[in-house]
Structures are given as structure tokens and as C-alpha cells.
Amino acid sequence: MVNEQGTLVDQAELFRFISQVLEAVGTPPVGAAEMAKQMVASDLAGHESHGIRRLREYAYRARDGFVNPAATPTIELDTGSLVSVDGQANYGHLVMPFVTDLIIERARAHGIAAVTVKNCDPAGRFADFCDHAANEGIAVFMFMNVGGGAIDVAPPGGAEARLATNPIAAGVPREGAPNLVMDMATSAVARGRLSDAQERGTEIGEDWLNQSGVLLPLGGVKGFALAVIAEAVAGSLSSAGTVGPEKVDARQGVLAIGIDIQKLRPLVEFKKDVAKFATHLKETPLEPGAAEIRMPGESTAINTAARLKSGITIHPVIWERVIELAEVFEVRLPDSKVV
After folding, report:
1. Residues with Cβ within 8 Å of residue 173, at least 6 apart in sequence
2. What is the average pLDDT value for the chain, to the nearest integer?
């Protein structure tokens, strides 16, 4: 019987369970550990939409042949500062660390570099990749589409979906505090967050869906414009594919751009400048009842620190899926306690 309140699991047990399930569907141990690390990080950060709630989907896509979790990404074109990568149908979680390291390497060599990606399963959050690049002194900007699949978002005024949620992410180094890291859908909310709210029975924002029950762009025409640009540069430039009348499987397209800050000015000076203006923004006088001002990336750090101590609470609906996966793949359930 599933607890109606929630199940508390330590992050180490969650990591162990996810890794073992992924290994059961053919993911090599190193890759399973990397993917588990990213998924647990999502739950720790408070982004449950991309944490363990997605494990069943990921495992079954590999089991059913949509993903090749043992594949190695390949470089198709290489001009030095411009590179195109084929993910070979592997998980995006495992292709994107390869791409991020490539961006760092080539940005250091050339000052600025761009890498496109096609033929990989959609990754979860891109924040971890952006944060990694920022830690290496590289400012990074990423645009994503889903190769013409996963159509969930209607154009402003449209009655049906014609776009995916097309995220945009970025990472900028900062001194003495979390890097400035942005990772956002160009829809009103990410599809995973909407699904998570529906499963939990929590309130759906009035600006999330149109009258037909389809996701809206973030901020109306402005979010729509961002989604269109992401569709063009991530889908067309990478050859991953773009939206059209054909129904296709979700295959992520990515354009990632990296800039080596040290090539333009001393990195220490840059990071101090960023910290200075971030502090100025955070010290803005607050309106009555307003919460503290947080820079992009700060909430992740705060939530992670808290949940490392308290553990991760898994919603009953998601815990049912955990039980299902444990039975299907003969993996021991995470040690847990009822909340």
C-alpha cells in the first residue's frame, strides 16, 4: 500500500536505485552513475519534474529500443571552433556532458566555439551543464528543440500545439556565490512541471494553458519569439529537424555556444563585476510581503543544501512508479520512511 503523504528517501539511496534501473536497461555503469547524479540533482534542487518521476519513461524508452544507452557520441563535422555532434540515439543526459566538455575545450582554444547536437534523447535539466562550463570560466548559452517531436505549445492565439517547450539555458561565472545559471522553457511552464502539478493535484496557473487546454508560450508573443529562434538554431542548424505536419519521435536538437572570458578580460575581474551587480540587485528594497530577491541559480543551491540534510520526499504517484520499476527490473527498492 502506498503512503498518501509521501515517502522520504536519502539521496544516496535514490542514486543507487536509479543507477541500477538504468544499468538493467543496458546503460554502462559509468553512464548510469552520471545520469543518476543529474536526476538526483534535479530532485535536490526542487525541480522534481526532471528527477525520479522521469525514470520510468527513460527506462522504458531504452527497453523498447528508442534509446541506445551504450552508444558513444560521434563528431560529424569539425572546423575547430564549429563542431557538429551526432548523439547516436543515446540519452541526452549522457551526450550533453560530452558536448559541454567539447565546448570548454574549443572555447579555450579559439576564444569562442559552437557545437550543434542531433539524434539524442531529450536531456533533463541543462542547468548542470551550464554550471559546469561557468565553473571552468566559460560563459555558455544553449538553445534546444526536440527535432519536431513532443509538440505541446500553441502559438499565441492558436487553438492547437505547434511547438515543443524549446528551452534556453545559460551559465555565467560569479565570484563568491552560485554562478548565474538560467534554464527555462519558452513555454509558460515546462511540460514536466505541468504533468507534475496534474499528478499531485496542485493548482494549475491561469496563464499556463489556453482555452483548448494547450500550453501557452512564456509571456505571449515574446516567449513565442524565443521558441521560434530556438527551433531554428537548435533544429535546423543541427539538422535535428523542426516542427512540421509529420508526427515524429522526440529527438533533441541543440546549439551550444561557449565564450572563454579570459580571452576578453581577466576572469577574476569579470567575476567580481558580476558579483557586484548581483549584490546591488539583491539589495533592492522589497515591497511589503515580498520574498528575498534571488539571482538565477541561487534557489537551486539553497534547496539542494536543505534536501541533502532532510532527504527527498517522493510523491505517492511517483512512488508507485518506483515500486513498478523495482518489480520489472528486479532492483531493490530504496530504503525509505513514511513522511
Report:
1. 134, 135, 137, 139, 179, 180, 261, 267, 270, 271, 274
2. 95
Per-residue pLDDT tens digits for 4-63: 579 999 999 999 999 999 999 999 999 999 999 999 999 999 999 899 999 999 999 999
Mean pLDDT of 233-254: 95
20 three-state secondary structure: helix
The whole-angstrom separation of Cα 7 and Cα 185 is 29
- Band (pLDDT 50/70/90 cuts) for residue 3 is very low
Q: Provide the CA 7 distance to its chain's centre, in angstroms.
A: 24
Q: How are the residues of the chain apportioned to helix, strand and coil, as percentages rounded to the nearest 5?
A: 45, 20, 40
DSSP string, 78-116: E-SSEEEEE-TT-BHHHHHHHHHHHHHHHHHHHSEEEEE
Helices (H), the chain: 11-24, 29-45, 55-63, 92-110, 127-135, 191-200, 221-230, 267-282, 298-310, 316-328
Query: What local confidence, expressed as pLDDT, does residue 4 receive?
Result: 56
User: What residue ranges define each of the domains in the chain, with the CATH number in brackets?
Assistant: 7-271+297-338 (3.30.1370.60)
Q: What is the pLDDT of residue 74?
A: 98
Q: Which amino acid is at 160?
A: E
User: How far is residue 267's CA from residue 183's CA, in Å, rounded to a whole number?
Assistant: 23
Give the pTM: 0.94
Give the span between the Cα atoms of 272 and 249, in whole angstroms: 45
Beta bridge partners of residue 115, listed in sequence order? 83, 256
AA letter at 259 = I
